[in-house]
């Protein structure tokens, strides 16, 4: 480094030490403010303004730049809003229920007036106080409806992504099983009204609505009629029984589709095959996928022949005690195991080997859960022969061989070297080296952070 470069670095450091936050770039300030909770955004602005005016009145340089303070009120820090339990609530005493947390309409109305037009992502997390969620939907819908009737303004048009996680479970007294409560009634009605005011929506995700038969038809029709420009659709266990939704084929501009297997049948697959812009089609299976059946092999063959631009993914996740639902002759690109019920051992290798028969285009197998040294070694050999990419977490590897010599010979043949197999499973370094030599890639065993952002 030249002498001039060193002096420039020293000048920059001294300028930052003297100016503090005022020396930070605006882009960095936006990122910092965007990570703050909602209640801290206002407090930070008040502290910053007080400090700035106090220093200016004393003739000192302000420790917080006014431009940095203004970043609190621009679009970027407010681009994502999450509604959670006890947000914008206050304690209220009632004679019949004692102290209760009720929503504060004044603060909620103030928030919507100031920040709703800046939202780009709106996420509803699972809540237990259902009345507060209902009031939030109602106030937000009335706010948008008022401006749409009295002017040409659409205050909620900027929202591009809406994620609704219902997932309401509670444990009954004397019963250790969790009871699932579905969305319905006035809650479902207000949700449908709110979706009708999200005119710029392109990403819609609905998690475990658990609708009844007489509710699902009306709701799905309402969503599909007004949301033809959606590019990404995710529906997880929308109903608590097997029910195919033909309306999925009406989203002509879909690019990414995620759906539970109980919402599919031969007619739905045929309609999905005609979606010209569809890039990824994910079949997501968890413990709520009750009564699911595989689509016929003939339908999948027709899908593969007419649709060559869509990648099909199979995902097994959650507390599901069942096996992965095989879709015969489907053009599967990747299989992802996210089952958290225990380690994946010999059964995984057998399932992976069998999957080659129904998924000839399989190119990726990602396993999130625990897996033994012996199983990952066998999977890498099978993946190499079929030119398939394998990805596992390093922290999920178990230092176990759990394969006998007879089992190794049954899988790899009589010429398999059991001594090599045993030496390869002796340590983390040995297994990583062998996996790297077999697959020819250093990205088979990855860190948790890399795995998280890869899938």
TrEMBL record:
Pfam families: F-box. InterPro entries: F-box-like_dom_sf, F-box_dom, LRR_dom_sf. Residues 23-47 form the F-box domain. It comes from the Eukaryota. PANTHER family: F-BOX DOMAIN-CONTAINING PROTEIN, PTHR20872. This is F-box domain-containing protein. It comes from Anisakis simplex (Herring worm).
């Amino acid at each position: 480094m030249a002498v001039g470069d060193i002096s420039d670095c020293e000048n920059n450091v001294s300028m930052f030490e003297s100016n503090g936050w005022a020396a930070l770039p605006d882009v960095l300030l936006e990122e910092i403010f965007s990570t703050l909770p909602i209640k801290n955004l206002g407090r930070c602005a008040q502290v910053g303004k007080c400090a700035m005016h106090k220093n200016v009145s004393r003739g000192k340089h302000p420790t917080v730049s006014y431009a940095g303070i203004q970043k609190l009120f621009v679009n970027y820090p407010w681009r994502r809003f999450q509604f959670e339990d006890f947000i914008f609530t206050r304690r209220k005493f009632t004679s019949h229920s004692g102290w209760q947390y009720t929503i504060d309409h004044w603060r909620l109305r103030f928030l919507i007036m100031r920040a709703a037009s800046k939202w780009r992502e709106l996420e509803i997390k699972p809540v237990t106080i259902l009345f507060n969620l209902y009031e939030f939907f109602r106030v937000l819908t009335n706010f948008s409806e008022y401006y749409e009737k009295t002017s040409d303004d659409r205050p909620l048009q900027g929202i591009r992504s809406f994620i609704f996680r219902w997932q309401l479970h509670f444990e009954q007294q004397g019963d250790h099983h969790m009871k699932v409560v579905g969305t319905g009634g006035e809650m479902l009605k207000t949700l449908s009204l709110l979706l009708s005011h999200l005119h710029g929506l392109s990403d819609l995700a609905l998690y475990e609505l658990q609708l009844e038969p007489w509710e699902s038809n009306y709701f799905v029709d309402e969503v599909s009629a007004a949301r033809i420009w959606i590019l990404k659709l995710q529906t997880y266990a929308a109903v608590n029984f097997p029910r195919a939704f033909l309306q999925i084929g009406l989203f002509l501009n879909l690019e990414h589709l995620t759906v539970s297997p109980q919402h599919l049948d031969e007619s739905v697959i045929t309609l999905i095959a005609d979606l010209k812009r569809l890039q990824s089609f994910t079949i997501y299976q968890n413990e709520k996928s009750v009564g699911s059946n595989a689509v016929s092999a003939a339908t999948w063959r027709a899908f593969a022949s007419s649709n060559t631009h869509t990648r099909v993914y199979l995902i097994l996740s959650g507390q599901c005690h069942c096996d992965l639902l095989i879709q015969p002759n489907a053009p599967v690109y990747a299989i992802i195991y996210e089952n958290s019920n225990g380690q994946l051992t010999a059964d995984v290798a057998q399932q992976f080997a069998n999957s080659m028969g129904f998924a000839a285009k399989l190119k990726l197998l990602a396993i999130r859960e625990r897996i033994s040294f012996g199983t990952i070694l066998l999977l890498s050999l099978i993946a190499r022969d079929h030119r398939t990419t394998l990805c596992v977490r390093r922290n999920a590897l178990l230092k176990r061989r759990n394969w006998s010599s007879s089992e190794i010979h049954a899988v790899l043949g009589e010429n398999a070297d059991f001594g090599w197999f045993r030496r390869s499973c002796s340590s983390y370094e040995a297994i990583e080296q062998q996996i790297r030599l077999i697959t020819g890639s250093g990205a088979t065993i990855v860190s948790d952070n890399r795995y998280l952002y890869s899938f």
